[in-house]
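Justification of resources, computational component.

The compute hours requested in this renewal are based largely on the per-chain cost of generating structure records like the one below. Each record pairs the submitted sequence with a full structure-token output. That output is archived, and it is also reused by downstream analysis tasks.
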Amino acid sequence: MAVKAFLHYALEVPDPTVGQRYYQDFGLVDVTGRGNAVRLRAAKQRRENVLLFAGRRKRLHHLCFGAPGEAFAQVRQSLSRAAVKEVDPPKDAPEGGIWVRDPDGNLVNIRDEAPEPEPADPPLQLNSPGHAPRQAVRGCPERGQGAAPRRLGHVLLFSPDLGRQIDFYTRVLGLKLSDRSRDIIAFMRCSTDHHNLAVLASKGPGFHHGSFQVGSVDEISLGALRMADRGWQPGWGLGRHVIGSNFFYYIRDPWGSLAEYYFDLDYIPDDCPWVPRDFPPEDSLYLWGPPVPPDFGENKELAAR
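The structure output for this chain reads:
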């Protein structure tokens, strides 16, 4: 792979301070400091995972990927072969790296930066039939805890042309196609995660959600409870996806999109002969969980334009 890491996503929103409170309640740490953007990160990460810029309406500002060392030069060569022109970075955006636009017009920043080491939790002690690793110890977590996301995992974007987006991110940037469901949704990776970028069919581009890893199903639910206690509206969950296999819970953000807690995502080693599967439409969303909200797949940015 040329691109080795998904580093952050940035949104343009009407009031970044509202988003700042949302993501802090979600469990991220505010590291804004100086500058015109709100910056947030997972507690055990050094770099920011989410940037919020002021704008007239909510929209994707940019995506940021890491391609360290020789991989950075490979990306530049690949962009040149594909006749993808570099563009100037937007005002107040992080300096450095290569800036381009994908076929949907989304800004993409590729930086000569390696992924951070993944923070490791102690192995879960879960009792199951015939196996009791947790003995003489109560397993229920303390009441009142919330979620503490370990890292950013992926984003889901709307796209009017899945094939065109898949071609750009795989052929030009070097991501790999993990799985898809017909012309409904596709999942791509630049790490050992099942997916770091997903694209969902729509009449136009847009941002659907950002997703953050937590340490257990308990933590997903405790995070959801804390968000509800603080006035944020639930989006969908608890459930389990088929594609990627992860448990999920989505919380509505202040602008009509979502943030997701996830746990137990499929892991694909770099040298694994993984064969992408084309799943039937009934598997495109979930195996179990509450009914899908009618507007879950709605690109609300189309109505705002």
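The radius of gyration is 19 Å. The first helix runs from residue 16 to 26.
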